[in-house]
Amino acid sequence: MKIELYKTLKNLLETATYIRDIKGEDFFEITSLINKISEVYDNFYQYEPSYLEDFVKKTKEQLDILLEQGEKTLTPYEIVKITRHHQRFTLQDILENVYDSYMELGGEGEINIDPAIVCAKAMLVRKVGDEIFFHQVMVIGHEKGHGEEFREGGSAKPWGNEKALRYMKMAETEGIPIHFFIFTPGAYPIEDYPGAAQQIAKNLYHMAKLRVPIISFISEGGSGGAEAIGLADMRLMAEKGYYSVISPEGAAAIEAKISDGRPPRELVEKCAKALKLTAKDNLKFGNIDRIVPEPLLGARRKDYEFFKRLKIELIRATDEVILQTRSIKFLRKYAASKQETENFKYYVNWDLDEDEIEILIENRYKKYRKMTQWAIHENKTLFKSFFDLGHTISIKLKNEINYKILKQGQKTFKKFLNELTSESTLLLKPVSDPIKTVYNLIVGKKTGAKLVTHSLQDDDIPTYISPLALEDKTITCPQSEKYSCPDLWVPDLYGEFCGVCPNCGYHFPLEYKWYLNNIFDKNSIRTFNDEIASTNPLEFEGYAEKLKAAREKTGLNSSLISFEAKIGGISLIAVMLIAEFRQGTVGVAEGEKFIRAIELAKLTRRPFLALVHTTGGIRIHEGTLGVVQMPRCTMAVRDYVDEGGLYIVVYDNNSYAGPVASFLGSAPYQFALKSTRLGFAGPRVIKETTGQDVPPDYHSAENALKRGHIQGIWDRRELRKKLFTALLTMGGKNLYYRW
């Protein structure tokens, strides 16, 4: 009896301490209560059982009241504190209490490929009446641990995310569902192979078309680190979890422009509220599908009722995803939506046939395509909307007829004719020649490959002088001490030399208009979707004014320009992220414009080019609405590439964070101009996260090439020529000019 009281008292002390940690020392009289509990706990055996029983009862009642009061006044930043607390449940607790059995893969504890990522084959048992059914699943998630420093707080290193991808593919091979568990403040920002950004991009690219159901559960979802294992058919989120583009502290530091030290507590709390990072916010915005209820002030390691609830929700979510692929589903789908207990009223076979897998992948694309649609703002008239719709329909119809009927028929007949000619060269030549003559008369004889008609002409380039070249002065090359570069006369540097030091090859930054006027054929650029504008969907204080200033400065509605153009006569679709508009950061508008552009490239079978003048990552002022552009855009990339498209990315200046870790980093062909800086996080973030200083050339294009992150380094003076050669030599037979 007394031992049970001792255990109960210990639990009460933990609860009281937990309340103080979340709500603060000034929350009612929590500090005084902790002192009382500690005194009784420390001198436990000096008290009579009757006194202890009475004390425990009264203390429980007090704590219940405090929990209720704490829940009523819970703030977004306090929710962040809940997810970070050492008493919070972890993936290991879920494996022990939700799954009926499991075996960890890729190492255990500290002896591990990356202890921050845990992968396990697990079993879930479903009871339907008197029958018991077993479901195999692959569990992949972040493990924060309980005070285990080697876990890095759940921040996965690049090889940890590679480990996750490896077991995703294993689950795909075995045809079993995947359950993701997200407990991370963000990815560990290092560029060592395979690279933080590049591996996240690779994970997203493969998750887009994994042939098994995917369920994700978010407790702590920090930006790109969460997306590395976050793309799913059904996204669940803990009621006291958070999902955000950046931590409140990080946002506060940026808003206050603090490079060293901690931002003020008041500003941190203000940013936590402004980021709209709670489960309720994310459900409202459509970033998640369902909230898993938690006890007052959040679930902890010993909240076994929560684990029962989570098990039900995981089975239910997997059922719902699978039933979406089935024709006979209505009663079970309704039953799944009402399921509240461990005793299920129905059974769903989790095996999928080929047709169901295709539906699963199609549903996944549609799900993400619809995300953030409500936040898109187009300054478009009704007439323009109808005109664009009609134009899109006509393009689809034209290409269906052109490629799938006419040209496909020509290719099939020509292949047959060539085979017939080859087989009958000796015996049937008199028969095949007349047929070939008739075919050439109808279709038109081609004397060589169609690409021969394309060539670069200097006359195709308009004369453009950079405004930077108008100053009559000299400038010193940043590498002059190392390479003994002479001072450069500005009109020559930004004119004839294209912003490149002729001695060492250092690339000075140039305005985005230089690229538009010097890379593409004269008068070939036609922009589209200019009406899609960046807005302030979270109503983030001060952000509307910043957007207004960016629009006035550039005359643009967003940081991404989408356009049709030609290089050497080859027609292509291109997008460009520009530095002048909010440092090329990506939000809802930019994501939507990117997707529409690459979908047009897919429809018209044209190459797709992404020029990255600069990108500073995902725009923090749009919160998770910006973050979900990472999976949305990457899924569009995967769809385009799978259809035989040619996707080329060219980086210039500074290219960091979310875009590089998703739709840019997933390109099959990536190149950088010589002085580009490329990576997942800048030196300051790396210092704050890892405590390590990085060398000045850590993010250089040369090091990116050595790590295998890009396929080559180009000189700006040869960019047009390089792109033309790439269009000629890269890409498959599905491109329009290869038919």
From TrEMBL:
User: PROSITE patterns, per this entry?
Assistant: COA_CT_CTER, COA_CT_NTER
The EC number(s) given in the record are 2.1.3.15
Q: Does the keyword Membrane apply?
A: no
| Keywords for the protein's UniProt record, in alphabetical order | ATP-binding, Cytoplasm, Fatty acid biosynthesis, Fatty acid metabolism, Lipid biosynthesis, Lipid metabolism, Nucleotide-binding, Transferase
**Pfam families assigned to the protein according to its UniProt record, in alphabetical order:** ACCA
Q: Pathway involvement?
A: Lipid metabolism; malonyl-CoA biosynthesis; malonyl-CoA from acetyl-CoA: step 1/1
Q: Which residues form the CoA carboxyltransferase N-terminal domain?
A: 481-739
Its annotated compartments are: Cytoplasm
According to its UniProt entry, the protein's GO biological process terms are: fatty acid biosynthetic process; malonyl-CoA biosynthetic process
| Subcellular location, principal | cytoplasm
Q: Name one GO cellular component term.
A: acetyl-CoA carboxylase complex
RNA-binding as UniProt keyword: no
Q: Which residues form the CoA carboxyltransferase C-terminal domain?
A: 62-320
Cofactor dependency: Zn(2+)
Task: Give GO terms: molecular function aspect only.
Answer: acetyl-CoA carboxylase activity; ATP binding; carboxyl- or carbamoyltransferase activity
| Known catalytic reactions | N(6)-carboxybiotinyl-L-lysyl-[protein] + acetyl-CoA = N(6)-biotinyl-L-lysyl-[protein] + malonyl-CoA
Q: Which family does it belong to?
A: In the N-terminal section; belongs to the AccD/PCCB family.
Task: State what this protein does.
Answer: Component of the acetyl coenzyme A carboxylase (ACC) complex. Biotin carboxylase (BC) catalyzes the carboxylation of biotin on its carrier protein (BCCP) and then the CO(2) group is transferred by the transcarboxylase to acetyl-CoA to form malonyl-CoA.
> Assembly and partners?
Acetyl-CoA carboxylase is a heterotetramer composed of biotin carboxyl carrier protein (AccB), biotin carboxylase (AccC) and two subunits of ACCase subunit beta/alpha.
What this protein is called in its record is Acetyl-coenzyme A carboxylase carboxyl transferase subunits beta/alpha
